[in-house]
Write a structure and sequence with these properties.
283 residues; alpha+beta; 3 domains; ten-stranded mixed beta sheet; 8 helices; 32% helix
Amino acid sequence: MPRTLNPWERSRSVFYFKLFQPAVDAMRNMPKLQPKGNRPLKMSFEDQLQALVFFHLQEHTSAQHLLQTLKEDDFAREHIAPGQGIEKSSFSEAVNNRGLDQLIHVFQQLQTQAFGVLPNTHAELGELIGIDGSLIDGTLSMLWADYRKGSKKAKVHVGFDLNRSIPRKVHLTDGKGAERPFVSKILSKGQTGVMDRGYQCHALFDQWQQGNQLFICRIKAGTKKKIVSKNVVPAGSIVFFDAMVLLGTTSVNQSEKPLRLVGYQIEDIQYWIATNRYDLSAE
């Protein structure tokens, strides 16, 4: 006979499944998760995703903590754990063989849903995509995640929609993966990449301009610059420099195409921004 949930558990169920419903919708037409060996899957991809969501909602401290909750908590046992339950060894195997293709599919579907309903703040600035890379600690069994001897790390390269505050594109590499090449992969036509100094590369600035890719990139203060033409700087502005320049040293690393360089100062610190956005004021 099915167990009857108390009123509190019923409320948890309603709220949880309302939260999880967009993910359910995103799993439609998803490639099916296949076992990598002869043994059947102990956890379906939906089981894996529910466990991952529940793990973060409840702020579990470890997989062991999550497994204990899946056994002892009525709601988790009824709605999150696989129907037959899950043991530590089977859970570890399922997590190690998680469906990356399925996760990417769900991510793409969810970000498309979110893009359609979230307000587009600062639309007058155009589509702004923050671009950065971040290291993720890995286990030694992640043989592909090379970083250094005795340490495994993956690197995630993210394009973050600054207008809607959601990630738009995600790429994964090993921990040594270079970040700069992913700018062209992340940006779509008409979008502006917003980047820190780690992305400064004068040859790439030329390449992005040649490909009509828009960018706003902070550069090192000591970068050499050859002024081609100057723009008027309003009196009393935080901006002290606005000009078309060539960046770098002649015959060494100088850019071939002029670009706009804006310098501004806040609390005695000067910042320099290289960009090919000529439609915006310097401020």
